[in-house]
Amino acid sequence: MGYANLRELQTALTTASDLASAMQSAPTRRDADQLVDVLRQALTAASSLGAETGPTGCALHPHGAVDPLYGDPEDPLPPGYGKCLLCNDRRRRADAHPPHARPYARPHPRWRRPLSA
Description:
Mean pLDDT: 80
Radius of gyration: 22 Å
Order of helices and strands: HHH
Strand content: under 5%
């Protein structure tokens, strides 16, 4: 629990430092908002270092792994996805196979196929 939070804090602070270093003399509003978002992630990670709740904030997997794509500005998670890697993996698998698709069903048994003449 503590290591995941510490790693998330380090990543967020490194990202914030990179963003701040890349800013020009007059940053755009988008750049400033992006920096604020990353700093909020760092603050959340820092405040949860000593907390009893898990790093994911997930009710099902409070001490599970944090999704490595969480907070990635270049490859953001879809809406509704959280920090929990296990729940996000379940969502990804569900999105990959629509409920109406049955990947293992055969259309007809082989012994009932009509013979061609």
